[in-house]
Amino acid sequence: MQLIVVADAATAPELAAVARSVAGRDDAVEAVTFAGAGFPAADLARELGGHGVSRLHVVRHELLGDYAPEAWGSALATVIDRLGPSGVLAPATHRGTEVLTHAAARAGLPLATNCVRLAGDGGSVDDGSGDGGSGDGVWRVTRTRSGGVLLEDAELAAPVKLVTVAAAVEIPGVPVQAADCEVVESAVDVPPELGRTRVAERVASETGLSLSTAPVVVSGGRGVGGADGFAVLEQLAERLGGVVGCSRVATNNGWRPHRDQVGLTGTKIAADLYIACGISGATQHWVGCMDSAVILAINTDPEAPMMQRATYAVEGDVHEVLPAVLEEIRRRGESAVAARADRHATEEAAPAGSSSAASSAAPSAG
Amino acid sequence: MDIVVCIKRVPAFGAQVPLTDDGSSVDTRHLGFTIGPHEECAVEEAVRLTTAHGGRVTVLTVGPQEADEQLRYALAMGAHRGVLVDTGTTELDPEATATAVLAGLTDEPEPDLLLFGDASADAGHGQVGVRVALARGLPVVGGITGLEADGGDPAEGGGAAWLRASRDTPDGTEVFRLPLPTAVAVKEGLNLPRYPTLPGRLKAKKAALRTVACAPERGGLRTHGLRRPADDRAGAIALGRGADAAPAVVDVLAELGKV
Ligand SMILES: Cc1cc2nc3c(=O)[nH]c(=O)nc-3n(C[C@H](O)[C@H](O)[C@H](O)COP(=O)(O)OP(=O)(O)OC[C@H]3O[C@@H](n4cnc5c(N)ncnc54)[C@H](O)[C@@H]3O)c2cc1C
Ligand SMILES: Nc1ncnc2c1ncn2[C@@H]1O[C@H](COP(=O)(O)O)[C@@H](O)[C@H]1O
Questions:
Q1: What's the domain count of chain A?
Q2: Is the ipTM of this complex over 0.90?
Q3: Residue A38: which CATH number?
Q4: I want to staple A287 with a disulfide (CB 3.0 to 4.6 A). Which of A76, A147, A297, B236 is the partner?
Q5: Which residue on chain B is closest to A283 by alpha carbon?
Q6: Domain with A306 in it
Q7: How far apart are CA B116 and CA B124, in angstroms?
Q8: Ranges in chain B, pLDDT < 50
Q9: Is the pTM value of this prediction over 0.90?
Q10: Do A167 and A271 share a domain, yes or no?
């Protein structure tokens, strides 16, 4: 038997390791990729081999060369039927979930999406967690719900287990042995009408900082008071090399476009610094920002959940605090410039070690 | 254009999610209920499309009888009919939910468009739309944040023949051109849903709903329980009050190398 991962070079290391941990001792970890005529599979195979994948099934058909959810799902269902693997794992990205859902629906199989923990039934691999296998043909999975506020423990009972694996998955420390990854070409039939869900047009995204990748996000909620109130957040974001985000209340009031919304039904971010201004911290918002390294909350209500869960809290009106912060940044910038000018002047006049008042007034300003 | 929108009754919780003592589910005794934002946008879009092109909007929900509250909310937004597939609960696995949705569709005329949310707000499987579409032989795409009727002339009563559906991916926007009838799963951001008017609410309160009883067989994904993830965040460090906190805030920004 084998376990199959639907992976690209970026997600393969994690998925292969997770697959290894649920595979029985004698199960191979293999991979599948969808391709049109010209795709050279050797590079991907070499990459996958490094992660212990012993075979790459290259499924070719003219409808598979570009992403087409129905065609890819149908091809995967054919592969599942042919190979009868014990499980198939894909990343819990939109595309990974979509392809696996189509395959599951076609194959008449259940699917567990967004899994952060998997335990196979093999029992042959001991990851030290003490919950090795059950040997009953059932996988124990833990998946996230409501964006990660809740964990759901579930059982996946099926002849072939289909799972999408969240980026936050626990990777058990199972040793991975590099393998020579054999490329196996396989042709499939794809019903021609499935070409109907091919991508008809593509528009490349604008380059530049986006909410999901910005190192700093200055975010505003109801407490900002209105669309105009965001000007001061814009200024701070620009000063800190970041972008502006918002809560759903700001979106629903038409103060900000939805692409700025952080949260369960907006964007999930993991910034270096998240500044939550006038945002109460409802769970549906919190799941969108909780992976940020540092969270600073500014709120008039010290009891607001965001004020409790943040790294730093400032009690106050966003329209008093932010202008004062901008002013303080400006002042320190000026005094740093002044200190530098001063130092130059002193150095020219007298090279003695007399430190100026201005430079000591600029503590740790970077 | 006749449209069916599938909506789910979900608990609306705030800063904490209360769980029942046995951890089997969310303790909803003190919670209100709502429909997820993705589905609210689906209802709004359906109302706009039928306003522009004619046709009817039917909203369908699978759940307990109390889920009529969510159907009535959608009716107050402008939907025309409601179908309640009474399974007694919303706690079904995605295969069972899809079976129940299909049972609700059986005696309905074939819609031109079947709308779903991209994922339900509580369970978030992201599966029901695809499972239903496949069973009905319909094309389906998910994650859609742009939808436009294309190709028909409403003046001739022909309605649209195609839909242009677009979605954002990490690399840019993907556009699909879908022949009707089709299914589409949409995401918040598609539009800004309206708030129901008071007359709309009053009318919806009295509207007759079609109820279909259904006891779907369970699928292979079986929930054992829910729990909260461990939260290892220490409490927040207070940096002060009002404008006086500015120096402390800027010290933090400096420490993080941001200024
Ligand atoms: C299924 C579902 C999905 C959802 N998805 C999302 C999502 O993706 N993103 C999201 O954000 N929400 C989402 N929500 C909504 C969420 O539950 C909250 O309603 C929302 O996050 C609240 O926004 P808020 O914090 O701006 O407003 P409020 O909760 O009203 O909080 C406003 C805060 O501002 C403070 N304040 C007021 N005046 C000032 C001032 N002058 N200065 C400083 N502070 C002030 C108040 O003390 C309060 O804490 C979702 C809800 C549901 C049911
Ligand atoms: N109980 C339900 N009743 C009606 N529609 C549902 C139900 N559960 C899920 N759906 C629909 O299917 C979509 C995806 O749900 P899920 O697969 O649970 O993420 C939702 O956004 C709804 O449109």
A1: 2
A2: yes
A3: 3.40.50.620
A4: A147
A5: B15
A6: 216-321
A7: 12
A8: none
A9: yes
A10: no
